[in-house]
Amino acid sequence: MYHFSVIDKYMLTAHQAIRVMRVLVVDPHQDSRDALVAKLQAERYEKVYVASTGEEAVRVLSAGLAKREPIDLILLSLSLPDRPGLETLDEVHNVFDVALVLLAGREERHLAVEGLGHGADDYVLRPVNAEMFLLKAEKLLTKRFLHKELRRSTARNETLFLNVLAVMAKVLEAKDPFTRFHSQKVSTLASAIAREMGFQDDEVRRIGIAGILHDIGKMGIRESILQKPGPLDKTERETVERHAIIASTILEPIEQLQGAVGYIKHHHERFDGGGYPERLAGEQIPLGARITHVAEAFDAMVAKRSYNVPKTPEEALAELRRCSGTQFDPQVVSAAAVVLRRNGLLASRPEQPAKSLPDLIEDLTDQVSL
Ligand SMILES: [Fe+2]
């Protein structure tokens, strides 16, 4: 007895999926158009559309988009009465995401070949060999189906990955109750500063992630040190300072975090070179790390910790300014001041319920400014 393998099942799914994809046949010659449509329907293609002019073709494509039922493949004649040659091809290719097969007379072969350079995927010559066209259509639609599947599974993996990060951040917060909401606030402030400084979505997102995970290395440090009331001695301080290196060691193997790891590793470097772990100075420190440093310092100053009296947001901002150029990058301090002022000083807000990291990341990439 024959058992379906996973690949068999997948190919079966692909076979079924492409039969419900939308095919548009644009051909001014009624006979060949009807013959192609009949052939497609005989092969159980369920959604076949027709057009005989370029204008009609664009109308069908636009209507599909408007209904969120886009055409997947178009067979496009090069001898349309209203827009001959490559004119329609250029318009379709520039505006619509569709697989494209050109239909050319023997004498138009050179034009069809030229069309491949204009975004066409393939061509067929008249008189059309319907079997050949079907094979080409099936190949292109299968490729399209697989691309869509790949996009879908990448999005699923991404969500899974972000959830894992959220759990890591929560574990850290559980370890030190005084840091509750700290990572979330640092992330929010750091990404707002990044936006203020003109970074694009991807970079804002990386900085937001660095904010969430910047202290993840503290997972490797004893609670008795993390929660010690009062100042730390030299050995204890050195132990705590190791959290930046521990974090980069934990996170470095994760491919999706490559951009953020450097920001996490260097979020305690000082602008004047007196920080850790590598005593980098000025522009040597990744900008994302300089931003995370300012955001973290602000939140630490205003937070209620076991061993210090919290500063008011105004006092904390004054402290950022006082240390601008020594501990902090002046450019980042200026941007932070704008964000904090505009937002009525972030930390003075009542505490928000914790969000999941995926939600937070979504906020980061959606918001234009805080
Ligand atoms: Fe830190």
How is this structure best described in words?
The structure is a single chain. The protein folds into 2 domains: 6-149, Rossmann fold (3-Layer(aba) Sandwich), CATH 3.40.50; 176-366, Hypothetical protein af1432, CATH 1.10.3210. α11 packs antiparallel against α12. Mean pLDDT is 84; it is low at 347-351 and 364-370. The chain starts with 5 loop residues before the first helix and ends with a helix. It has helices spanning 6-19, 30-42, 54-66, 87-95, 109-116, 130-175, 182-196, 201-213, 223-226, 234-241, 243-251, 258-265, 287-302, 313-322, 330-342, 357-366, and strands at residues 22-26, 47-51, 73-77, 99-104, 122-125. The chain is of the alpha/beta class and 370 residues long. It has 16 helices and 5 strands. Bound molecules: fe (ii) ion. Fe (ii) ion binds at residues 214-215, 243, 267-268, 296.
